[in-house]
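Appendix B. Extra example for self-study. Work through it before the problem class; the solution is given directly after the inputs so you can check yourself.
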Amino acid sequence: MSAMFTHVVLGCNDPEQSAAFYDAIFAALGIVGQRHEASAYYGTPGGGMFMINPPRDGQPATHANGGTIGLAAGDEGAVNAWHAAGLAHGGTDEGAPGRRDQPYAKLYGAYLRDPVGNKLSCFTTNVEEAA
Amino acid sequence: MFTHSYLGTNDVETSRAFYNATMGVLGYSPVEMSHGTVYPDGSGTALVIATPVNGEPHAPSNGHTLGLQAPDYVTVETWHQAGLANGGTNDGDPGFRANSPGNMYGAYLRDPDGNKVCVFAPNVGPNTGRGE
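Solution. Structure tokens for the complete assembly:
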């Protein structure tokens, strides 16, 4: 089975503001964005794509309660950089970088809200054990 | 790129019926939790459908769509039918989508909680005898 997710779309109300936020947080993960009209795209077809658009129904974008998008980071430094980049570009803190171990995995992650209020997380499983 | 996607629900049993049917078509099996259901892909990615952690009612986003991958056109069609038969509502019939990379074959549903989900298969040529 290939990748589970083809793409994730989130709405935006101010495309420039949201694209600035996503440009910054994806840059921290080594992913460069592209713009097309009011949309911004990150990643590649086949490897998973993330995009932001004003909602197609013409109504304002709203965030869910209960929805979270989880992004993958290569290491703890990338998680820290992701969180800091988001806070510096219109995001709000929803959980500082830190260990969030689960019974099945040692995890390090952080949470942000984007400028619309959409909830995002960023996790790495490449956790260094304390000496 | 993605570790997981978490969608909210207000009714674990109803959403589980919908996702067991639709994710089952795509080959994923459920792992049941008290507050929801997880569908792992076996390589570190998972879809989670659960009640919101803050205890407030689930509310769908306007503007959010979650895209799932199907191997072929008939799986897209089977996924759409399974969703309609298990509490979902139609948000786009199976067909080629000119706005997708490579004019892929896809379909859209709303789950029982109003979350917008879609499935796409690679374009391998005309869908002779079915759909478009």
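Self-check: The two ends of chain B are 32 Å apart (CA to CA). If your reasoning did not lead you there, revisit section 3.
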